[in-house]
Amino acid sequence: MLVDERRHRIAQLVMAHGAMTVAELSRRLGVSAVTIRSDLEALEKQGILRRNRGGAVAPQVLRFAPAFQEKTSLHRSEKEAIAGLAAQLVEDGEWIIIDAGSTTLFLARRLRDRRLTVVVNSVYTLNELVGAPRVELIAVGGCLYEPGLSFVGPLAESFLETLHVDKVFLGVNGVSLKGISVNNAQEAGVKRRMIEAAEEVIVLADSSKLGVDSFVTISPLRKVHILITDSGAPEELLTEFREAGLEVLVA
Length: 251
Fold this sequence. Notes:
The chain is of the alpha/beta class and 251 residues long. The chain folds into 2 domains: 3-63, Arc Repressor Mutant, subunit A (Orthogonal Bundle), CATH 1.10.10.10; 68-250, 3-Layer(aba) Sandwich (Rossmann fold), CATH 3.40.50.1360. Helix content is 39%, strand content 25%. The chain has 10 helices and 15 strands. It has a 7-stranded parallel beta sheet with strand order 6-5-4-9-12-14-15, with helices on both faces. A 3-stranded antiparallel beta sheet has the order 1-3-2. The chain starts with a helix and ends with a strand.
């Protein structure tokens, strides 16, 4: 792993958990404590996190999701692979929900020529599917969550409560044995309603999100039917998920 990649991963972990110790980071990334301390010093100088005795904490503002364009560029090849595998699970004629998110946006791009009814709450995904010749497009309204340009809140949740679809493709910030989670409480309610509306819940999460418990838990793992991740995922963690009853597909 290159230095920049490692430091980005450290920042992700600290933001997701709120705080991490040097020992935890060293164990997760497989590098020495000396290396981790050097990385934390560099990240603190950039204003990304704040060191404390024994580790680092995330500034409060960084507990929220990074800008969407930045998210789209992170782990792009892995997200593209996950989207490609997810697209194979979609059958013509189905009713599906595509959640807001960078990986789910890549999925939407692969479905433009399919005969589907697609429900979206993301401005980006809506724009991606406008003009798709055989897609019946349904937009969820509500309050605009500007960092992700997605619609959330009571209006969005009330609309989703009226729907019944075949599948939902869900984006998250964390997947662990405790459940699936996100960084922002405003998005959590909408994602819960999406889960309730679907016969099958499919979570798209690159390997950097596995083993992470983010700020707000959306649902326990038992409500998820399929997890699609990439080949960078630790095999022992995938085994734990499978033993918990989750079907795991690796792109």
